[in-house]
Design brief:
The chain has six helices and no strands. The chain is elongated. It is mostly helical.
Length: 175
Amino acid sequence: MSRQPPKQNSENEAATSWQDEVDINPEMLDVEELRQPKLVMKYGEMKADLKRELAACKKELEFQRAKVADSARLTLPKATVDAVKDYVTQDSRIQELESELIELQHSVDVCGAVLSSLDDRKNALQDLTKLHGQQYFAGPSAPHDMQTVKKGLERTFRGPALPIQRHKQQEGEAE
C-alpha cells in the first residue's frame, strides 16, 4: 500500500495547478475574494493529511528497521553493531520506505509553501480591493497591458517550479 498522495502527470503539471490557483484575476476581485478561504482550506487539509501520512510512514520505517535488525542479529555470524546497521541500510524495503519518507516530506514542504503564497495572495487581494475602492482602475492612466506585465513577472521568476526538479537536473548533469 503506497502512502504517497496521487501525483499529477508530471511535476510541471502539479506546479502549474497550484500556481494557477495562486494567480489573481484583477477583473474579478469579488470572485477571487470568495475563492480565497476555500483554497486555504484545500491546501491546509492536504498538508494535514500529508503530515499524518508522514507520521505513519516514519512509524512504519522504525518498525521495519527493528524487524530487519532482529533478523540480521539472528542470521549474521558476527552481528556487530556496524554489520547490523549495514544490513538494515541495504534492505530494499527500508530503502523504499526512506524514499517514500523523502517524497512525503517534500509534499508537506510544498503544501506549506503554497499556504504561504496563499497568505501573500490574501494580502494582494486586500490591496487590490483598496485600490478598486479608491477608483484606481476607473480613471484614465498610462495604459499598460496586465498580460504583458504578468508575462514579464513570469520571465523574472522562471526556474524550477519544485525543488525536486532541480535535484533531478543535478543528477542528470552528474552522469
